[in-house]
């Protein structure tokens, strides 16, 4: 009897965990032949799965990342899986503004098209600083992608209709921005939450600015994904998180589905500036829909990265 109860409890627990981890999959099979897709951090995790999906659809795929050895390996694997040889990598360090400017200069010289920009790369909640003295989370997750997108915006407009997809996280709801200290770095998790909220405001303001110009923008919460973000932490933390991720987090393939959906589905164009979860446009907390704050953040970000 005890054995039967144990088996039944285990089965119920397994089914419950599978229910928690259920995700919609992008069913749109649209081809992307002749299109160019740029993905930051496309050498692993969600970024690599997204890059593979774009390559399978026939796109020219460029993954931009800091580690060239990992990038080369990822390109080989993506080519083998997708049977698309039009996949390449370029060096980009989002923690260094000079690297971003150099990357964009080289990209614009080499590439005549940019149809889909996927701001995928990100830093978890770490207490560290970028080369330009920004907190690592805010500097990479928001400011780096802010500068990158702005420097490539002309090419996106030339290739309209085009799309900008920025990965965020539902953790945005735990913090609000403090314009007296945007570079806040006292509690790493709070800094991470603020960077993810900034991604949402950035997307909304970009969509407003590009209205009628053929460029649409979307922020995506991919879910909690079994990626390699724990590599920035201690071995003990990694071991504990591996167990938790196995139980409750979704695979990278599942996590990439909403990103892919926003990249290819026609229906999303009616929701430019929207926040997407599980392949659907989702609601936001009221404070995350403040157009005045979004505009203020945009102007502050321009000053911080010396864009103006």
UniProtKB/TrEMBL annotation:
Transmembrane regions: none
Signal peptide (UniProt feature, chain positions): none
Keyword presence, Oxidoreductase: yes
Domain of life from the UniProt record: Eukaryota
Keywords per UniProt: Oxidoreductase
GO molecular function, one term: oxidoreductase activity
Pfam families on file: adh_short (PF00106)
Coiled-coil intervals: none
Family stated for the protein in its record: Belongs to the short-chain dehydrogenases/reductases (SDR) family.
PANTHER family: PHOSPHATIDYLINOSITOL-GLYCAN BIOSYNTHESIS CLASS F PROTEIN-RELATED (PTHR43157), RETINOL DEHYDROGENASE 14 (PTHR43157:SF64)
Protein name: Retinol dehydrogenase 11
Organism annotation: Megalops atlanticus
